[in-house]
Design goal:
Structural class: alpha+beta
Shape: extended
Radius of gyration: 19 Å
Helix content: 40-55%
Low-confidence stretches: none
Number of strands: 5
Number of helices: 4
Oligomer: single chain
């Protein structure tokens, strides 16, 4: 079992095309088929910025370039480590993260509205068919 910490970035190394990535909000353990990325220099790198950079299609495409296996391909760890992330200043990284998180909050709110609309639509339909 591989230990991960809060603020680590976990990426599934099996079937990279599925784009499974998670920003850890707690400490725990994972299988060896999960890659754990940890920001060590927090004065130079924002962990959320690194996470958002790794959520990009280009990262997963890079993983697939070095993948081995047909049925359940696995990314090549050495190849994955060659992936380069542009690194703006820590201040700019934090601004980028703040903008992205604002959009993510809007998406969550919109999904909640859509879910409630579907339920209300169902209630209207049921009301008129009784």
């Amino acid at each position: 079992m591989i230990k991960y910490q809060e603020n680590d970035i976990l990426v599934s190394n099996i079937r990279p095309y599925l784009k499974k990535i998670w920003f850890a909000n707690r400490t725990g353990g994972c299988s060896p088929d999960v890659l754990v990325f940890r920001v060590k220099d927090k004065e130079k790198y924002d962990a959320h910025f690194v996470y958002y950079a790794l959520t990009q299609d280009s990262f997963f495409e890079h993983m697939m370039l070095g993948a081995k296996g047909m049925k359940m391909p696995r990314g090549d760890k050495n190849s994955i480590l060659e992936y380069e992330i542009p690194v703006p200043s820590i201040e700019d990284q934090q601004k980028i993260v703040k903008q992205i998180e604002t959009y993510e909050a809007t998406i969550v709110e919109a999904k909640a509205v859509m879910d409630s609309c579907a339920e209300r639509k169902k209630m209207v339909f049921e009301k008129w068919l009784r």
